[in-house]
Design brief:
By secondary structure, the protein is an alpha/beta fold. Helix content is 40%, strand content 22%. It is globular and about 60 Å long. The two termini are 16 Å apart. Keywords: Kinase, Transferase.
Length: 292
């Protein structure tokens, strides 16, 4: 049985695990993410040295990933320019963007396992994503395919507020609901959904608008890629209201637009199987694909 070291670099924590080629997690742990380059590289090196019995290193990180080099780094700008393959030359190393890792995880062992053309949409501080066409991950000419946060949903907005990364921020949606209903902790997602379940009209209006924007995002992607299925992930996707609200919003688009109803085949909308471990599974699958 071959075991791999898998590292998921996040803004708060670095998660790492040993996983076999069938996707069985053997060990798992995490450390806080250092906020400067030198301490960060030391932390990664410590993790690597603690796992000498490995057949390769699979890494997931924010930012644009060109081959094994990180560019920009998202919330961790000091990652820009780091090439893990150059650092760990003795290993097979694969590096992938976190949104792309999520769709690979779902396509390998999750909710998109039987789909040849599919996407994952990850709802969090912004909107992450990945697209698979004909069983192949779509990278694009500049390794930026699937950067859904940059899809414009409001052409009248003069700033980033009109783009998906802002208008579909799950964090901002929760803050808006909590402020509207008077919850003291504006970032408490459970309280926000409690208000929705209780039928608070202000909460329902904010949530309905959010689901409509998400349905429009899916329609935009569908008009270009014509996919079989979309898996919805991220922390709020664990709430059944998210998928049911999205499905209703998508149905409303069809009901209100006869031309769309006659023209477009509806994709399947499903809840992502993996949550916190999605990036670990996807990063490993990426390495396994490259190793074939």
């Amino acid at each position: 049985m071959q075991n791999y070291l898998v590292i998921d670099i996040g803004g708060t924590d670095i998660k790492f695990a040993t996983i076999d080629e069938k996707g069985t997690i053997l060990t798992k742990d995490k450390v806080h993410t250092p906020q400067n380059k030198n301490d960060f590289l030391t932390a990664i090196d410590t993790i690597v040295k603690k796992h000498p019995d490995r057949q390769g290193i699979a890494i997931c990180a924010p930012g644009k990933i060109a081959d094994t080099t990180i560019h920009f780094g998202g919330a961790l700008p000091f990652l820009d320019g780091i090439d893990f393959a150059a650092i760990y030359r003795a290993d097979r190393v694969a590096v992938i963007n976190d949104g792309k890792a999520a769709v690979l995880a779902e396509h390998w062992l999750g909710a998109l396992k039987d789909s040849q053309n599919c996407a994952a949409i990850i709802l969090g501080t912004g909107v992450g994503g990945g697209i698979i066409l004909n069983n192949t991950l779509l990278n694009g000419a500049h390794f930026q395919a699937g950067e859904l946060s940059f899809m414009c949903l409001d052409t009248k907005a003069e700033d980033f507020g009109g783009y998906a990364g802002s208008s579909l921020s799950a964090v901002q949606m929760i803050i808006h609901i909590n402020n509207a209903v008077g919850n003291p902790d504006e970032k408490d997602g459970f309280k926000a959904f409690d208000a929705l379940k209780a039928g608070n009209q202000q909460a329902k209006a904010i949530f309905a608008a959010y689901c409509h924007r998400l349905a429009c995002l899916i329609m935009n992607i569908q008009s270009v890629a014509d996919l079989d299925a979309f898996a919805i992930g991220g922390g709020i996707s664990a709430q059944p209201l998210v998928l049911s609200g999205l499905k209703q919003a998508y149905e409303d688009i069809y009901a209100n637009n006869p031309l769309i109803k006659l023209t477009f085949t509806k994709p399947k909308l499903v809840q992502a199987k993996f949550q916190a471990d999605a990036n670990l599974y996807g990063a490993l699958y990426h390495l396994l694909i490259l190793s074939k």
